[in-house]
Design goal:
Blueprint: E1 12-20, E2 29-37, E3 48-57, E4 71-74, E5 86-95, E6 102-107, H1 109-117, E7 121-123, E8 134-137, E9 142-151, H2 154-163, E10 176-179
Antiparallel strand pairs: 1-2, 3-4, 3-5, 5-9, 6-8, 6-10, 7-9
Length: 180
């Protein structure tokens, strides 16, 4: 059934049978035509990325350990005046508005390669990083993937901001969610 099939169509199933009254051909051959109604249930797998957001946790007391609650930063986090180290937490959410369960995976090649290649920047646990982890999303359901990063110094943050290739002082990740 092609994508975009009309859900209101009632398909017909026509069958034609050619044969002989007896085997081997002992008598005249015959042809009969029959038809029957068939019900076809068209189900659509669908996946929607519903949000991507960053949160920040700073070192508020100068003891070199981020503490306190994570503060929402939306899609951009301003670290002007922040005392390092900091924890950055990225969350991506996806929903399944389709008719069948979807096995979904979130990925972000820019974030993963930048964190892996930069000194002073690392995934931390919990929750470390769930990118690449498959999650089954039921129809009408939602899933989220979380990555938490420790950035040790302002220089490491500048390196992270430049790692996306834009040289604009802002790190722009490229998270996506795909499903099967």
């Amino acid at each position: 059934i092609p994508d975009g099939a009309d859900r209101t169509v009632t398909p017909a199933n026509n069958v034609m049978v050619d044969g002989a009254a007896f085997c081997p051909m002992a008598g005249p051959s015959f042809t009969c035509l029959g038809s029957a109604d068939a019900t076809v249930d068209i189900v659509e797998p669908r996946l929607a990325c519903t949000s991507k957001e960053w949160e920040i946790q700073v070192d508020s007391d100068g003891d070199c350990a981020p503490d306190g609650p994570f503060v929402p930063g939306g899609d951009k986090v301003d670290l002007t005046g922040a005392q390092f180290p900091v924890h950055l937490r990225f969350t991506i959410r996806a929903s399944n508005p389709g008719d069948v369960a979807v096995n979904a995976v979130a990925s972000d090649s820019v974030l993963s390669s930048c964190v892996a290649s930069l000194p002073g920047v690392a995934f931390v646990a919990p929750p470390a990083c769930e990118l690449g982890l498959a999650k089954l999303i039921a129809p009408g359901g939602m899933a989220q993937w979380v990555c938490q990063i420790r950035v040790g110094t302002a220089d490491a943050m500048r390196d992270l901001a430049a790692c996306d290739g834009t040289m604009d002082g802002v790190f722009q990740n490229s998270a996506t969610v795909e499903g099967t």
